């Protein structure tokens, strides 16, 4: 057992091995190679050895990768024009596209598809598989690709960010060192790019310190819950894409369903629920199970078998919620920076593009030997000049257009299409989603115990949260401190019970939060099951008192997503 902290020094560090971080690392190596080739041909001095690293909290690249996912290939084409020849794992090219309004027992097909929902030219993929493939390409360049390492703190020298510290390993539940204790490493870098994904824990810590969001509207989120199924042969052609609105949501809750045909008779089936819902008993996992009971979906799943399950929060705030993207020594890319096109439900192409722009900025900084806020501020300007910024600007009022429910949202979305994104007016949502949650009394609902909401799940087509966690392959070392930090559990047992009926039991899609009896006088207390956690970040976002903080558990823990 040693207290000696390893120090790894690199030039550019990408924190997170998702599409943004991996695209950034790969593009940086491309730029350096091109520069050095030109230098060798007599065009100036080469850049010399540049050390690049990608840190990833999962046990391997791609294990935490989850998305819808119908990918717009625009970003990938720019990164690797020959991505198909290079073996990119494309499940299918989109072959047909539909949008339905679901009623309880039937569906109405939209006669035409609004342009944002047209998917011709896009690919159905598994994000985890894409990440694995990109990770292999990055590794082949000689860059460090380091899974099992969760960044838990940012390192600063004065105002300059100089890298990150990774989490200690081998600490028991009570905080004591185990025989296998290993202190976290300091990974020092001239440029650190945060690519942690949605609601990144370092980004959350740094935001107030660096005032990254002082000019942004509060971020709005949704939670996507998804399963991949093996269907009887020929049931759904690969490349078939279906989006739905309506059932099982009420008209005041934002969200919708999706069904994507994958290769080998696999089907992606999922549902997105806005986390700015009013009813405190809203349960994204339960809504998804109900979606699978709709006759249209049930008929598709009949005779099929579940292969995997996962859940993830989605940044929906868009253009007005984008933070400042750079600071001295650092930049932010991908979902961490809210780069998601809400109506298209697509962010992978924006993640890749933002990673590439951050790489170009880091490359210029390395050439100049300067890593200050002004030099890295070029990334903000590059992003504003890019097609990614234009695309996000064009849908800037999408989510807020649904503030008054489904029908107003549809009308507003239609108007936005003909007014360049303006719709019924510029309407950034200045209220965070959790602030919209009504109390039980105001919402006119009674708290429903989790077992009641899950009663009747047949474990064939519909699953309890615990069963679905099993399908996610989630594993954590049980003997480690909880990575869900609840700053005042007395609120759970008193105010929250009374006011909101403990919504954590409902919004967590993995049954991590349970309220259990505390003595025999009717009192209750919070019981946490952190080892169930699928790292979706919903609790960190949706808790009405904002007393839950998600921090990374020991590196390597979490889901092991396959096909997602
Ligand atoms: Fe998601 Fe939080 Fe539940 Fe983990 S504990 S699965 S992050 S809601």
Could you outline the blueprint of secondary structure elements for this entry?
Blueprint (H helix, E strand, L loop, with lengths): L6 E9 L3 H25 L8 E4 L14 E2 L2 H6 L10 E4 L2 E7 L4 E3 L13 E3 L1 H14 L3 E3 L4 E7 L2 E7 L2 E3 L5 E6 L3 E9 L6 H10 L10 E10 L9 E7 L8 E7 L4 E9 L9 H10 L1 H7 L3 E11 L10 E2 L2 E3 L15 H21 L4 H4 L1 H7 L2 H8 L11 H13 L21 H4 L6 H5 L10 H7 L12 E3 L2 H11 L4 H4 L5 E5 L6 E5 L9 H5 L5 E3 L14
Parallel strand pairs: 1-2, 1-13, 2-8, 5-15, 13-20
Antiparallel strand pairs: 3-7, 4-7, 5-6, 9-10, 10-13, 11-12, 14-17, 14-18, 15-16, 16-17, 19-20, 21-24, 22-23
Helix pairs in contact: 1-3, 1-7, 7-9
The structure holds iron/sulfur cluster.
Distance linking N and C termini: 38 Å
Query: So what's the overall shape?
Result: globular
Q: What does the largest sheet look like?
A: 8 strands, mixed
- What structural class do you assign from the helix and strand content? alpha+beta
Please mark out the parts with pLDDT under 50 across 5 or more consecutive residues, or reply none: none
Rounded to an integer in angstroms, the radius of gyration calculated over CA atoms is 23 Å
Strand content: 15-25%
Number of DSSP helical runs: 17
The number of E-state strands comes to 24
The overall pLDDT, averaged over residues, is 94
| Helical residue percent band | 25-40%
Instruction: Give the cofactors and ligands.
Output: iron/sulfur cluster
């Amino acid at each position: 057992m040693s207290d000696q902290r390893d120090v790894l020094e690199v030039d550019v560090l990408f924190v997170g091995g998702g599409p943004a971080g991996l695209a950034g690392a790969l593009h940086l190596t491309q730029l350096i190679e091109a520069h050095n080739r030109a230098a060798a041909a007599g065009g100036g001095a080469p850049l010399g050895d540049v050390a690049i690293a990608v840190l990833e909290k999962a046990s391997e690249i791609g294990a935490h990768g989850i998305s819808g996912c119908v990918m717009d290939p625009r970003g990938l084409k720019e990164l690797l024009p020959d991505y198909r020849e290079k073996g990119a794992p494309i499940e299918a090219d989109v072959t047909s596209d539909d949008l339905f309004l679901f009623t309880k027992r039937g569906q109405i097909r939209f006669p035409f598809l609004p342009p944002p929902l047209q998917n011709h030219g896009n690919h159905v993929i598994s994000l985890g598989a894409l990440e694995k493939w990109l990770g292999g390409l990055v590794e082949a360049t000689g860059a460090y690709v380091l899974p099992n390492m969760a960044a838990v703190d940012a390192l600063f020298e004065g105002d300059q960010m100089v890298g990150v510290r990774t989490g200690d390993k081998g600490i028991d539940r009570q905080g004591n060192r185990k025989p296998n204790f290993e202190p976290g490493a300091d990974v020092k870098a001239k440029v650190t790019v945060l690519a942690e994904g949605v609601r990144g824990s370092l980004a959350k810590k740094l935001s107030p310190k660096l005032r990254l969001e002082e000019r942004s509207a509060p971020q709005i989120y949704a939670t996507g819950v998804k399963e991949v199924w093996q269907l009887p042969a020929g049931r759904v052609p690969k490349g078939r894409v279906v989006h739905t609105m309506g059932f099982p949501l009420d008209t005041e809750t934002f969200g919708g369903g999706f069904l994507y045909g994958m290769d080998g008779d696999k089907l992606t089936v999922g549902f997105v629920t806005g986390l700015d819902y009013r009813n405190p008993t809203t349960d994204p996992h339960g809504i998804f199970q109900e979606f699978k009971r709709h006759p249209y979906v049930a008929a598709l799943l009949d005779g099929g078998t579940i292969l995997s399950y996962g859940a993830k929060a989605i940044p929906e705030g868009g253009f007005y919620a984008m933070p400042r993207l750079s600071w001295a020594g650092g930049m932010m890319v991908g979902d961490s920076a809210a780069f998601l096109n809400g109506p298209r439900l697509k962010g992978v192409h924006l993640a890749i593009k933002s990673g590439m722009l951050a790489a170009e900025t880091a490359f210029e900084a390395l050439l100049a030997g300067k890593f200050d806020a002004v030099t890295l501020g070029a990334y903000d300007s590059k992003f504003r000049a890019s097609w990614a910024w234009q695309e996000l600007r064009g849908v800037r009022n999408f989510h807020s257009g649904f503030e008054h429910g489904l029908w107003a949202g549809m009308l507003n979305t239609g108007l936005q299409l003909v007014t360049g994104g303006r719709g019924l007016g510029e309407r950034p949502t200045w209220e965070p989603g959790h602030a919209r949650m009504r109390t039980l009394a105001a919402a006119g609902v009674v708290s429903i115990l989790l077992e009641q909401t899950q009663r009747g799940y047949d474990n064939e087509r519909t699953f309890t949260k615990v069963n679905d966690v099993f399908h996610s392959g989630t594993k954590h070392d049980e003997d480690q401190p909880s990575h869900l930090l609840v700053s005042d559990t007395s609120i759970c047992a008193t105010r929250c019970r009374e006011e909101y009926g403990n919504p954590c039991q409902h919004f967590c899609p993995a049954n991590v939060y349970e309220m259990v009896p505390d003595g025999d006088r009717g009192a209750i207390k919070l019981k946490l099951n952190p080892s169930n956690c699928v790292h979706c970040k919903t609790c960190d976002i949706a808790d009405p008192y904002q007393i839950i903080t998600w921090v990374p558990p020991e590196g390597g823990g979490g889901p092991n997503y396959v096909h997602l």
